[in-house]
Design a protein that fits this description.
By secondary structure, the protein is of the alpha+beta class. The chain has eleven helices and 13 strands. Strands 1, 2, 3, 4, 5, 6, 7, 8, 9, 10, 11, 12 and 13 form a 13-stranded mixed beta sheet that branches. It starts with a strand and ends in an 18-residue tail after the last helix.
Length: 342
Amino acid sequence: MTYQLITIRQRLEWTAYVQRSIHHDFHHTWSYHSLGEDTDPFLFVFEEQDLFIALPLLKRAIEGTDWSDLTSVYGYTGPISNHDFETLDESLIDRFRLSFLDFMKNGKYVCVFSRLQPFLDQPRLLEKIGGLRDNGQTVYIDLRMPIEMQRLKYEKRLARKIRQLRNKDFQIRETDSLADIIAFTAMYLDNMERNGASSRYLYDEAYFKRLLNTTEPDCRLIMVYDGNIPICGNIIMYTRHVIRNHLSATAAAYTQLSPSKLIIDEISIIARSLGISYYHLGGGLNGKPDSLFQFKSAFSDLILEDKTWCFIADQEQYQQLVDARAAPKESSFFPQYRALNS
């Protein structure tokens, strides 16, 4: 079975596969994967003649064993290809499955986790391998409709609030200045602290500098200002077809005013100017229909199913790890043996 592994040191090769794919996300790119300082990213590539299927992954050693497991970066990844998954014949999907299983066995990988990209038909490729899980729903706006029609679909209170915010003397612009990156970092960390976020989401100023100065310029910081005061910001990522909010923050003194509603409306305008078809707003925390999901669904009634891939390649070894680490049996965290460290 034909596969190869492209390491993070092979920037040109990694970038070439991503750029040749018919659909991909910024989360698939070499630039995004290069941001991690304590991860071991690589690109699994299955290739036959003129077709390839590429899957970005992170290798993690399992302490006290000679085994490892695989996970994905924060965001939406999963496999990409230069062919549409919907058109792949079953025999090719079977050959991909056998190739991936061979890779997992040879590498002594217990399991793999990846959050899937909801605009691709990745489940069709992965369902024969197993491990697909539902992760709630995710909201998007169809930017191919006129902006007036988009706004007619807003929930009435939301539409009224955005009109009120438009009437204020706020400035909205793209920025990459050091002062604005510092201001956004402070807002973001304050938001995370107030929401009791896990330490893995506490990105620092250095991270945002690297992110906004990557070699693939499909990542921008959009800020809202009250005079000269930055009050809200969104880091957006986009590709040929989809734009999405990556991280956002609002100054504590302005949370009641909700400038985040205004910035989403503005980003939909920016996306149209870039020729992008869909604005992916995302879902609730951990896939739940919570207040965050309700906030997003006030912008659109267009929904996609959100899925993750949680495949166990060696069930016996996986269970031994769960038992050895006394992992909580009621936990839905994957892999279960890492639940205590999540």
